[in-house]
User: What shape does this take?
Amino acid sequence: MRVISLLSLLILLVSCKEEKQQGPKNLKVGTYQALLKVNDSLDMPFIFEVLSSNKLQIFNAEEQIEVDEISYRNDSVFIKPPVFDSYIAAKLTENGFEGNYIKDDLNRAVPITAYFGVSKRFEAKSKPITNVSGNWETTFSPDSEADSYVAKGIFKQDHQKVTGTFRTMTGDYRYLEGVLDGNQLKLSTFDGAHAYLFNATVTDSSMQGMFYSGNHFKEPFIAKRNEFFELPDANNLTFLKEGYNKVTFTFPDANGNTISLNDERFKNKVVLVQIMGTWCPNCMDESKFLANYYKNNKDKDFEIVGLAFEYTKTEEKAFTNIERLKNRLNIDYPVLLAQYGTASKVSAQEKLPMLNHVLSYPTTIFIDKTGTVRKIHTGFNGPATGDKYTEFTEEFDQFVAGLLEE
Assistant: This one.
């Protein structure tokens, strides 16, 4: 009997071990809700769909982000969104996964949990008290003179569903999606680089709420309806200091070559200088636009050169991120490493001392065939801004065409 008992125990232990090892090996195909932990009582949701074991899509309003860098090790999954230097590392569960959204270079980790079969971003339980469609004059950090800044909220509402964005003087908060649940507005977006959550209490004519960026930053905001509100002209915010009419720089490319605007390839051409970073979503939006424009116009005495300001700690890693961005977005124009170790705008301005400041990533400098700066555009109105993006692209086409004809 003792032998039989020991044998039975051994069989049970082996059986349990095999059962433990027979957990999920891959993500199940289907829709998931992911929850990023903002704080102990608040989650930031987004929706993604697994198309196969090594491919998924992240959804933010009209945006669909394809992710094809998915790997597995033992009982864990590693998901790396395109372009940006961040990733999700999580343990697979029967119902999804549990782990962290990680940015190594910034020493940041946000807990994340995903639930299979859940397709709603937010749960809305009450009928909306109003319709927030339209324009909203917005102030972030209204009680702080040092940190306060203005923005323009642009929203569309269909029953409880709300989409739109906030435009600021330095760019937009990209594709926001959420609900109006009674008098509670809830909006979020996750693009692989940033996780944004906006919660606000609304009336027919006002909003008061809080903006969260991951689990490391938050600030209050207030807003009021104002269909006529406009932000300052993005073409007048950054300019050359008195005594300058040209931009000069010398920075290296990935091959160790130093590139300057005095080089032969830029002489007697219209040149766009893009101040950017591979970590910056608005820069990604602009880079997509510029890459396509350059492809169609590089035979017209036209050049673009990107200047990357990277917070990653090493030069090698910075160039790796630049090459990743170029390959992912099919960028044919050179992107130089202007700075690594910090993305400080003050430090960026020190590298380009002819500018009054670097207010935003991206900032685009338009230079004519004589080397004279004709315009500097601060920020970028991406496709999430709708009509403003269309307006920008039309203005861009006309202005560059005019420079090419001179």
Remarks:
- The radius of gyration is 24 Å.
- Confidence is low (pLDDT under 50) at residues 1-20.
